[in-house]
Structure formats: C-alpha cells, structure tokens
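Quick start: read one record
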Amino acid sequence: MTDTFHCGFVAVIGRPNVGKSTLVNALIGSKISIVSRKAQTTRHRIHGVLTREQEQFVFVDTPGFQTRHGGAMNRMMNRVVTQALTDVDVVVHVVEAGKWSSSDAQILPLLPAPEKTILVINKVDALKSKNDLFAYTGKIMSQYPYAAVVPVSALRGVQLENLLTEIAARLPVGEPMFEADTLTDRPMRFIVAEMLREKIFRLVGDELPYGCTVVIEQWEENDEGARVSACIVVERETHKPILLGTGGVHMKRIATEARQDMVKLLEKPVFLDVYIKVRKGWSDRESTLRELGYE
C-alpha cells in the first residue's frame, strides 16, 4: 500500500424500496444484502467491502428510513440509520428516478455537511427521457446542495464506475481496515439467515410482511459440507399456516431456494433443516429484538 491509499466508511441511505441493497451488492460485486420489493427487507446495518488498488470502500447498507409506522422494530431501524450517518466519511443518498415523496424529504434534515453527501438517482433506465431526469434532479437540488449527483441503474450496472470515482474522491487517506478479499464483516451465519428471510419475503411477503425473523440455531461445517438448523420466529399461530402453505408447499420452496443460494455461497453441499416457532409480540419489544440479534 502507498501513502496515497484511501479508505473510509460510506453510508448508503434512503427511504424503503429505492434499491439501496441492490446498489451495494452491485458495487462490491457480491450479494451480501438481501433484496425484495417489500419495506423492511434490510433491518440491520451491513458492511460490504470493496478493495481496489488505491481505495477501500466500506459500504454501510442501512435499513430504509421509516416514516409511516412506529413500533420497536421501526425505532430500532431508524436508530441504525442515524447512527450510521455520524460515523461515516461519505453519505450516498439514494432516491428513485422520477419518484420523490415526503418520505424522501424527511431524510434531508438527517444529512451531514453537503460536501460529503452524494445524490444517487437510481433506476434511471425506467425514465422515458433525459428531460424528465433534468427536471427531477433540479427539484431535489433546490432542497439540498449535494456535492455531486450520479444517475445510475444498480440493476443494470449503469454509471457505477462513475459513482465509485465520486466516492473515492471524498475518502480520507488511510490504511485498509479489511483484508483485500473481504466482502463483508458479517459472519456467515448472519448471511445465511438473511438468505432464508429473503425467500420468505419474496414468497409470502404480502401475507406475512414483517412478523417473522430467522435465527440460526445450529451450524456445523467441514470440508465435506454444512449442516444448518434454522428457526423462523413468527408472532402469531395464524402465521404458521401462511408459511407452510397447502401441504407444506411454501415451506418446501422457501427452504429449497435458500439452500441453493447457500450452496453457491459456501461452495459445498448444504443440509438445511427449517422449523417454525411462535413468539408473540417479538417485533415490538426492544429487549427481545436485542436477544434475537438486532442492534
């Protein structure tokens, strides 16, 4: 490493469903944050690491800032966002092209000094014309003087290199914090639990959007494979049949798709055992949330 190496924390913030996790995954080139179209998909602060010849970016993928509902879960997630903003070198505020709401505007007072804040307009491929983008950008810039604006499509990989250049220009000089091959500071058990939760959101999210979490209760791994026992914690007895589906069809699909992702991640065979446990009111008690691994 040279004395011109740059390293720092980059918070990726925004309202729910603007594509923050998709952006982080695309930037580091690996899936370390789960994605879905449902709010509350990301509940934790997740660090994704990208190391290049002269920079190390430590991306902080945060939950979507919650403005519609209260409750212990949303309070906890909002604390994760506000804490992240105080500890980082660069802030990337992600918005969805053509869609600006009061939920986006409520994030503006949380932003730090403009010189460390970049506006990222995601999903630009969905806009019909550049004129629409110019008008949309002008509307936002009239409310907050971002240091830079980068239109991107995280899903299609558009303008991501330009975004990295803008971020790198604002990182402080410093030694790397992680080994060059590190992708995330989260343990493998955490990533595996998130993979399973992603499948739940995608399959039964409309019926069971927020009333479940996943706890890895047993993890055994060797060169031959991995044996994982996972518990899906729900709030009500009525949630169990939703998860199971007729004849257990939902649970079989959730477990199968999650196991396939785990095999790709671990690059070895995986035996996955999944079961359901009812724990009433778990998402509205901060003590229980901490017990289940939430910050």
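The chain is about 35% helix and 25% strand.
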